[in-house]
Amino acid sequence: MSKFVDRVTIDAVAGNGGHGCSSVHREKFRPLGGPDGGNGGSGGDVILVVDPQVHTLLDFHFRPHAKAGNGKPGEGGNRSGANGESLVLKVPDGTVVLDTDGNLLADLVGEGTEFIASRGGRGGLGNAALASKARKAPGFALLGEPGEERQLVLELKSVADVGLVGFPSAGKSSLVSVLSAAKPKIADYPFTTLAPNLGVVTAGESTYTIADVPGLIPGASQGRGLGLDFLRHLERCAVLAHVVDCATLEPGRDPLSDIDALEAELAAYQPVLAEDQSLGDLATRPRIVILNKVDIPEADELADLVESDIAERGWPVFRVSAVAHKGLAELKFGLAKLVEEYRREHEKPVARRAVIRPKAVDKAEFTVVDDPEIDGGFIVRGERPERWIRQTQFDNDEAVGYLADRLNRLGVEDALVKRGARAGAAVTIAGVTFDWEPSVPMSEDVPLTGRGTDIRLERNERIGAAERKAARKLRRQRDDEAQESQEALGWTEDADAAERSDGEAH
User: Fold this and answer.
1) How far apart are CA 51 and CA 364, in angstroms?
2) DSSP string, 307-331
3) At what angle do helices 297-311 and 255-268 cross, to 10 degrees?
4) Considering the domain 367-441 in this protein, what is its CATH number?
5) What's the rounded Cα separation, in Å, for the pair 141 and 125?
6) What pLDDT is stored for residue 335 in this prediction?
7) In degrees to the nearest 10, what's the CA dihedral of 89, 95, 99, 102?
8) CA-to-CA distance for 322 and 388, rounded, in angstroms?
């Protein structure tokens, strides 16, 4: 038996970008033919796409981890690496994408609607793309960026034209089974239906979908009886149909009290999404009332008593019996009329186009703030500086020098000077902390040395924090050894003073 799943949490991991290649063209009689390292390929994306053939999130329940392909590294001969293969995940129409904090990321309505759940990392540039007038043969390449990792919550809201609401055991599943080809579970105990059942109904030339929502009880809008999970599937229904059990034997229940109780819950329920593709609050939707089980004489008499009171509210009333197949044709065409009126007033949702929002030209590229954990330290935040850190090979001095040039051109050094940074201050970017050296000359003003080296780093005569700590430790060890030598020879400060006094007396 298939299982209906309407809420899952998935881990979407995009592919990593491939590393750039550092290569020099070589051939006979031409040992240094210039850089020819290719770029790395970009990592694949994780994409959610609405597919009308998918009706549940069951696949994600059993396979919650989604990983796209990684980009291939670049190669010599200006050969770029292949891009990673994107992973396309098919989701039902009406899927809502949320982050772990409950913030809306996407509302996927309409066939073909796409949402990029995680973006793949960019491929690193090869040394051929990094060549410039000042650095004609770079001895390094840029690393590929890691792919984006996100934990997302997928929530399904059934997209149906008609939603059946009512108390448990009101006969909603039985109606769906006789109005359509759907075969929901039917039993003589409450809460038989634990998940919505969708069916397709044909009335003349009209075709519409009907949803059997699990039974509601007073307090459902506050979550009682899993009411919030059930009410979520009504938010996109164009018409709400009250299914009333006219043959109930429970004390204190009658058709009018059942309708009033459910109307109170519908009015109290507030959709989680303010931008939902629905018709507004549930209390404002078109209504009909279905008086069910009228094949029982007592139920038929009760329907006679309450039908006029319900009609005074302006709602169409239908008297049916799912068991005896009574009044079903009138119900089918009555629902079809309401659905057709809705379709004339509202256009069918289509796949949403991607919206490109250019970045503001005056937006700050980075910010510099004080480091709360390191006295006198600073933290640089910004998309470009953090990306450059992830792309840098820190075991290559030339790559580190290239990073310093990029940060200097961006204005990071000037911003640190304005913040009062001093030489040797700890500066952290994207989790990497280094000692800041002010007024580092640009590469155009410095003669370049061998590939993979940078003379500016070699000429740095300032002792780093680690070296200073090691020097202090060595001095303490030497002092301790000298003190132990003096004590072994019996040489003390008092003996030294007495010897000096004897020398002065003579």
Assistant:
1) 40
2) HHHHHTTT--EEE-BTTTTBSHHHH
3) 50
4) 3.30.300.350
5) 6
6) 87
7) -170
8) 68
Q: What is the mean pLDDT of residues 281-295?
A: 79
CA angle 179, 181, 186 (to 5 degrees): 75
* Two tokens, residue 297: 């004489």
Residue length of the chain: 506
List every span in the chain annotated with CATH 2.70.210.12: 7-156
Q: What number does CATH give the domain 162-345? A: 3.40.50.300
Alpha helix ranges (H) inside 411-445: 412-418
Annotated binding site for GTP: 166-173, 191-195, 212-215, 292-295, 321-323
Given a contact cutoff of 8 angstroms between Cβ atoms, the answer to whether 153 and 8 are in contact is yes
Q: How confident is the model at residue 151 (pLDDT cuts 50, 70, 90)?
A: very high
In 216-273 the beta strands, taken as DSSP E runs, fall at: 239-245
What pLDDT, on a 0 to 100 scale, did the predictor assign at position 356?
A: 61
Topology (CATH level 3) of domain 7-156: Spo0b-associated Gtp-binding Protein; Chain: A, (2.70.210)
**Structure-token pair, residue 309:** 């009171």
Query: Over the stretch 233-246, which tens digit does the pLDDT of each residue have?
Result: 677 777 888 888 88
Of residues 392 and 341, the one with the higher pLDDT is: 392
Binding residues: 166-173, 191-195, 212-215, 292-295, 321-323
Q: How many CB atoms lie within 10 A of CB 10?
A: 22
Radius of gyration of the chain (CA): 37
- Residues 130 and 402: their CA atoms lie apart, in Å, by 10
Domain span(s) for CATH 3.30.300.350 in the chain: 367-441
* pLDDT on residue 27: 78
Is the full-model pTM beyond 0.70?
Answer: no
Report pLDDT for 387: 92
What are the start-end ranges of the E strands in 132-214? 149-156, 162-165, 197-203, 206-212
pLDDT of residue 56: 75
What is the CB neighbour count within 10 angstroms for residue 122? 23
pLDDT digits (tens, 9 = 90+) for 17-48: 999 999 988 877 766 678 899 999 999 999 99
What's the gap between Cα 459 and its chain centre? Answer: 46
- Cα–Cα distances in Å, from 138 out to 24, 54, 130, 134? 9, 51, 7, 10
Q: What's the average model confidence in pLDDT over 236-260? A: 79
Q: State the binding site for Mg(2+).
A: 173, 193
Per-residue pLDDT, averaged over 454-471, amounts to 59
Please, what's the largest Cα pairwise distance for the chain?
A: 140
Per-residue pLDDT at 68: 95
CA–CA gap between residue 458 and residue 469 (Å, rounded): 21
- Band of residue 1 on the pLDDT scale cut at 50, 70, 90: very low
